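Record ABC transporter related protein, 250 aa.
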Amino acid sequence: MSRATTAPTARADTGLAVRGLTVRFGGLTAVEDVDLHVDDGEVVALIGPNGAGKTTVFNAVCGLVRPARGTVTLDGRPLGPTAGLTRRGVARTLQGLGVFPGLTVLENVVVGVPAGEPRAHERARKELDVLGLGEHAARPVGALPYAERARVALARALVARPRLLLLDEPAGGLGHDDIAALGRVVRDVAARGTAVLLVEHHVDFVMGVSDRVVVLDFGHVIAVGAPQDVQRDPRVEEAYLGVAAAGGAR
Ligand SMILES: Nc1ncnc2c1ncn2[C@@H]1O[C@H](COP(=O)(O)OP(=O)(O)OP(=O)(O)O)[C@@H](O)[C@H]1O
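=>
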C-alpha cells in the first residue's frame, strides 16, 4: 500500500500545475511553497482545517490573488487573470453559488457558454437535462431551493465543457442524496478527461470522489495521496481529521 506523502506529483506539462506557490497578505504568509498537480481526468481535493490556505490556493489558481512567488500553469502555460480563464477552458463554481436569482434557470446556464460558441440555448438545455433540471428551465433561479440552485451553478460551469473544473465547497449546504448525486456528476466529468480541483470540508464526500487528496495546514502541504492513505496519515489526523472529529474548526 502506498503511503501519503508530501512529495509533489510533478508533471508540469499537462493539466493544472501549481509550483512553489507562496501568497502573502501584508505580513501574513497565507500559503508557502505549495505544489500540486491535477492531471486530465483526475479529481484532486484540497482539504485542511479552517484558515489552512485552501481558498487562497483556489483564488491563486483563478487569478484572483497574486502570488508572491511560484507559478500556476495549465498545460505548461501560465494561467492568467480571471477574464482569461474561459478561453483557457477553465470553469468554476463558487461558495455562495454566484447564480443570478432574477434570471431563469436556462438563462443562468446560457451565460456559461463561452462567447461566440454556437447553439448556446441547445447546449444549456442538454446540460439541464443531464443534471435533472430540465423541468425547471423556465423558472427564476431565486425560486428554487438551495440544492437546485447549486446544481444550476454546476450546470453553468459544465456547459462550458471545461478542461479544468474548479469547485469551491460544492457539497456545502447539500443533503446526503444531493451529495451522492454530485459525486456521480464529478466522476462523470472526470471520466470525460476533465481535470477537477475541489476545495471541500465534507470529508466523506472528499474521500468518496477524489483520486488524490492534498492536505494543507498552516499554509503548507502536509500530505498528498490516495484518500485512504491520507485519512490514515497521523499528521493529517492531528491537523485535520482529529480537529474535524472534535468539532470542525480550530
Ligand atoms: N484577503 C485576505 N487578507 C488578509 N488575510 C487573509 C485574506 N484571505 C485569507 N487570509 C488569511 O490567510 C489564511 C488562509 O486563509 P484561507 O481563507 O485561504 O484558508 P481556508 O483554508 O480556505 O479556510 P476556510 O476553511 O476557513 O475557508 C488565514 O489566516 C486567513 O485569515
